[in-house]
Amino acid sequence: MNIREIQNKKQYAWIYTLVLIPFIYFLFVMIVPLGTSIYYSLTKWKGVGSPKFIGLHNYITLIKTPDFWLVTRNTLILCIVCTIGQVGIALLIAFLMTFKKLRFKTFHRAVIFFPVVMAAIVVGYVWRFIYNSNYGLLNTFLMRIGKADWIRYWLDDKSIVLGMVSIPVIWQYIGLYMIILMSAISAIPQEVFECAEIDGCTGYKKSIYITLPMIWDTLKICIILCASGTMKIYDHLVALTNGGPGRATESLAMYCYEYTFKFGNFGMGAAIAVTILIFAFTIAGIIQLVMGGKKK
Amino acid sequence: MKKKFLSVLLSAAMVVSLCACGSKTTAETSENASTEEEGTTTSETAATTQTASTGLKGHFSIYHFHEEDGSGTSKAFWDAAKKFQEANPDVQIDYIFADANNYQEKLTTYMAGDELADVWLTKGDMLPTFADGGLIQSADQYISKDTDWSSQYVDGAFTDSTYDDKQWGVPFQMQANCVGVYNQAIFEECGIDEWPETWTELLADCEKIKAAGYTPIGMGNKDQWLAESAVFNTYAYKYVDQDWFNSLANNQGAKFTDEKFVKALDGFQNIAQYFNSDMNSIDQDEMYSLYYNKKCAMFFNGAWSIGTMIANCPEEILESTHVGLMPAVEGEAGTKFDTAAGAGWNYVINSKLQGDDLTACLAFLKAVTTGEYADDALSQGFISAAKTTDACDMSSLDPLFSEYYELAATMNNNSIFDCVLPAEVGSGVLYADTQQLISNSMTAEEMAADCQSAMEANYER
User: Fold this and answer.
1) Interface contact A61, partner B, CB < 8 A
2) Does the interface ipTM go beyond 0.85?
3) How many CA atoms lie within 13 A of B290 on its CB side?
4) Within a domain: residue B4?
5) Which example biological process does GO assign this protein (chain A) (predicted)?
6) Are residues B226 and B161 part of one domain?
């Protein structure tokens, strides 16, 4: 039944009833928990008895806690690095895939997409073995090629550890954004490319001046998805470093989990969760603002 | 028509799925209600003097982390539990298991959802929350009435379950959180005749071992608890004592920034130079691997590692494996006998549990913490919180465990920091900062100030 077929009130009622069911589902799965999270963030609650309303006290405590700013910094750095790494590399590969001379495209696509279907915790443990200082693949490789002086304790060195944990995250999700961007590229009418080629626009110029503007909206969505997804980063970090050394690789999601389930401080945990939401919305807004007018 | 039928089918499926989500809650609520109703009809008298074959009946649930195919206290628990159930077929027990690594998190979730079991295991740091919230009933009111039960526990067994002058929990183990495990063959190879008695000797030995190409002390602190809870905690007791800790925990004057505690942090940072360099990225099991592969000469860890060594260590290494107490620091008040040790976890009883169910539960707790359980635990390489019976065959103990058993008898047990302090401090700041301390990214003074700041925030709450 499409909209032109609606002829009477009975049909309208039927359609609204159908829409209402997923709406109620969404309301109770998304909106109500969000509302209760905001409420709990304004309370002092250890999981026992009734929550005690304390206004913005949890948020004030958070702002005054240096560890909160440390984990916020970690999360934002990871967010920027992973977004540039994942979407940037995915875009390059998607461009490469448009080149006619490239062989075995299906094979490349399958191999690059493969890590996406792996569980994040598995990826974390796999890379932990790669980074292991005694029997890890990386240090063994460096030893074999005679670069023993490059060997580092990859997950123990505070100065490099944040970069090291971002590599598996980037590696895992390149394939996802590559597929999204490739599908956007494939939706561009072939005539546009043909016209461009007639006008002498070939190679990288075609990618920059034709393909990129045509997939701009999809690219924006990829960046928003990637940035807001990285704001919730948890599994990889738990498997790789458990947030250490100290809190050098701890993310806001881990900090939230720690307060909620390890310390049983549900009020503070909810405040951190709401903060993550605010950060994610802000980042999405900034991306929208920066990239929004470009299409015109 | 087909489309209409499909849409009806899909919406029906969605409605059913929504209803299914809600029905579980309803069922659980009614179950809780029925438990409460049952509770009002029977006496609270602790019929704990009943033996395990006197026709007990009742139904209760227990949330625990004892693996059914595990070793140590887990095996002893299941042996005792199965015997109890055979003798009491009318007692129905629902076992709710969670892996030890995720146990605490799930417990917090159950607590918040008001879905706690009738009996569960908890550490001392959660007692105030449970007790003040009226979620548990004190165990001593029942244990003290049964002299046969109360007389079976060793001294200090209830220290970790005492809050507000009441003993809330039932202990099942007494173990040292720190014991030195070393490879005698590597020691001899490096010209070391015996386990060091003093800290200076330990440092000198570490130098010799390092010069011989071995890692002197293995450390697997990825999960953050090992360095603090299983090593530093005992090292701190070479500088501070139980009174200092009690004062700190109860806001009676002692501070993390006190000179002696800062000195302890400083000394611990110094010994970290002898740990393996990847100390913060490998976990406990990987640390054991270093030891099994003769890459490290010794490690410090809780007494649970003795059972692991006996079960998993290659025979050649196990033969030359011995245990020792953490050496004393010259010039400081603490002795080598001062060790962080205790019951740690205790069974607590839900305040809603009453009547026959409570009676059955108490009999069960007695069976899985005392009597034959104590003998069985010992034979598994674990010291229980209860005294062993006369029937216990000490000659059958593994030689390594016998060594530890003798050492344990000499230990001066002190509180385990993370079992007593609020979780934000004990398993939060202390864990994270110790990791930074041993990797030299934080000074002793900075860590002391950070811990004190977290402690003061908790006093205010």
Assistant:
1) yes
2) no
3) 29
4) no
5) transmembrane transport
6) no
Q: How far is CA B322 from CA B198, B271, B318, in A?
A: 17, 21, 8
Q: Name the token pair of A153.
A: 């304790």
Q: Whole-angstrom Cα distance, residue B386 to residue A135?
A: 44
Are B130 and B257 found together in one domain?
no
Residues 6 or more apart from A30 whose CB is under 8 A from it?
A: none
Domain count of the fold of chain B: 2
DSSP string, chain A: --GGG--SHHHHHHHHHHHHHHHHHHIIIIIHHHHHHHHHHTEE--SSS--EE-TTHHHHHHHH-HHHHHHHHHHHHHHHHHHHHHHHHHHHHHHHHT-TT---HHHHHHHHHGGGGS-HHHHHHHHHHHH-TTT-HHHHHHHHTT-GGG---TTT-TTTHHHHHHHHHHHHHHHHHHHHHHHHHHTS-HHHHHHHHHTT--HHHHIIIIIHHHTHHHHHHHHHHHHHHHTT--HHHHHHTTT-STTTT--HHHHHHIIIIIS--HHHHHHHHHHHHHHHHHHHHHHHHHHHGGG-
Residues B247 and B328 in one domain: yes
CATH number, domain of B431, equals 3.40.190.10
Domain residue limits at B58: 48-174+343-389
Q: Encode pLDDT of B133-178 as tens digits.
A: 899 999 999 999 999 999 999 888 898 888 888 999 999 999 899 9
**Claim to verify: residue B61 and residue B161 sit in the same structural domain:** yes
Nearest CB partner across the interface for A258, out of B11, B428, B439: B428
Q: Is the CB of residue B293 less than 8 Å away from at least one CB of chain A?
A: no
How far apart (Å, rounded) are the C-alpha atoms in residues B403 and B413?
A: 18
Size (chain A), residues: 296
CB B383 within 8 A of CB B405: yes
| Residues B7, A264: C-beta atoms closer than 8 Å | no
Residue B188 and residue B333 in one domain: yes
A-chain CB neighbours of B439 within 8 Å are 156, 158, 245-246
Q: Could you report the per-residue pLDDT of A120-139, keeping only the tens digit for each? A: 999 999 999 999 988 899 99
Shared-domain flag, residues B337 and B349: no
B168, two tokens: 């809330």
Q: Please give the CATH topology (third level) of the domain spanning A66-295.
A: MetI-like fold (1.10.3720)
pTM of the complete model: 0.84
Whether residue B432 and residue A21 make contact (CB cut-off 8 A), yes or no, is no
Assess if residue B27 is contained within a domain.
no
Q: How far is CA B254 from the centre of its chain?
A: 25
Say if residue B347 is in the same domain as residue B337. Answer: no
Determine which of B280, B285, B291 to mutate to test the interface with A (most A C-beta atoms within 10 Å).
Answer: B280
Q: Which residue has the tokens 């540039």?
A: A84
Has residue B66 been placed in a domain? Answer: yes
Q: What is the mean pLDDT of residues A89-102?
A: 89
Q: Do A158 and B439 touch (CB under 8 A)?
A: yes
